[in-house]
Amino acid sequence: MAAIVSVNALKKTYQGGFEALKSVSLDIEDGEILALLGPNGAGKTTLISVICGMVNPTGGAVTVGGHDIITDYRAARALIGLVPQEINLEPFEKVINTVRFSRGLFGKPRDDAKLERILKQLSLWDKKDSRIMELSGGMKRRVLIAKALSHEPRVLFLDEPTAGVDVELRKDMWEIVRGLKEDGVTIILTTHYIEEAEAIADRVGVISDGEILLVKEKAALMSQMGRKELEIELHTATDTIPDALTPYDLTLGKEGKSLIYAYDTGAERTGITKLLSDLAKEGLTMKDVSTRQSSLEDIFVGLVEDAR
Q: Which residues are bridge partners to 259 per DSSP?
């Protein structure tokens, strides 16, 4: 699939020498949902700000739809919609006028039918004549998305779109994002919520300390790097792990009532059969077993810790 956004060796150094981006390279495919994960200060917002033309890069190049963000910035910016973290809306203005004004800023002709479709898609149509100050926080975030979509961009950046909203509204937003993808919009979202990436992303990128650690398809990432844990519940609790079981790198569960064995799901042999046999030889009787698959959060934390 062709890249609609191409980032090549992008750098951003602020006055004082702080390197927010360190030679970042990234291709974002047309029509995908890319979740960009990273701790606070990792460079997520700086990367988005450079691509959207709000921050000047120190080095490197970015193209959007083949247009350079510096030499052909008008064409590049016209393809981009941005939903920022902060809710910064005119409180006394009506919803419909707020969205209509954003469309006009990009030189688009008035198209009430288009705006009606966007507002209905975001469950805002019945609020079109409401003033921004009368809306809930979640509704205001929907207005931000409507503003970003008003000029019909091909690429939509969502910077922490569900920050500070409740779980139910967060799930509603996920459905909105899926609907936008079906309309052909390429979506890049930054998030602190790992479950958000697991729920809706096609690919996951991890950024830390201004560097991209990896970008992979979500399923492939979890398959390649995920691990499973086998928890063996014992009939009788134990204080220590027998020396003969040291090669398995077991850990004791709560109050010594279980043993936990981590193994690679992609390995040719898991070692479970031999482990259970050796447990019996050591006089440890198994009461029950259960398994747990590593989550995307486990993988993310491991990657960031390894990079430090």
A: 232, 252
Q: Name the token pair of 17.
A: 């020498």
pLDDT tens digits for range 222-251: 666 666 778 888 888 888 888 888 888 888
> What is the set of domains in the chain, with CATH numbers?
3-223 (3.40.50.300), 227-307 (3.30.70)
Cα–Cα distance measured from residue 158 to residue 82, given in angstroms and rounded to the nearest whole number: 6
Does the pLDDT of residue 173 top 90, yes or no? no
Q: For residue 301, which amino acid is it?
A: V
Compute CA 103 distance to the chain's CA centroid, rounded to the nearest angstrom.
Answer: 27
Q: Is 111 helix (H, G, I), strand (E, B) or coil?
A: coil
Q: Of 190, 208, 201, 284, whose CA–CA distance to 241 is shortest? A: 284
pLDDT exceeds 90 at position 48: yes
- CA angle (221 as vertex; 294, 25 as ends), nearest 5: 135
pTM: 0.76
Closest to 232 (Cα-Cα) out of 282, 268, 298? 282
Burial of 47 (0-12, 13-18, 19+ CB in 10 A): buried
Best CA proximity match to 259, nearest among 235, 230, 285, 280: 230
Which helix (H) or strand (E) is 51 found in, with range? helix 44-51
Paired residues of 82 in beta bridges:
157
Q: Is 273 exposed, middle or buried (0-12, 13-18, 19+ CB in 10 A)?
A: exposed
CA atoms of 200 and 208, how far apart (whole Å): 22
DSSP state of 46: H
Given a contact cutoff of 8 angstroms between Cβ atoms, the answer to whether 195 and 28 are in contact is no
Task: Centre a 10 Å sphere on the Cβ of residue 80 and count the other Cβ atoms it contains.
Answer: 23
Please state the separation of Cα 146 from the chain's center in Å.
20
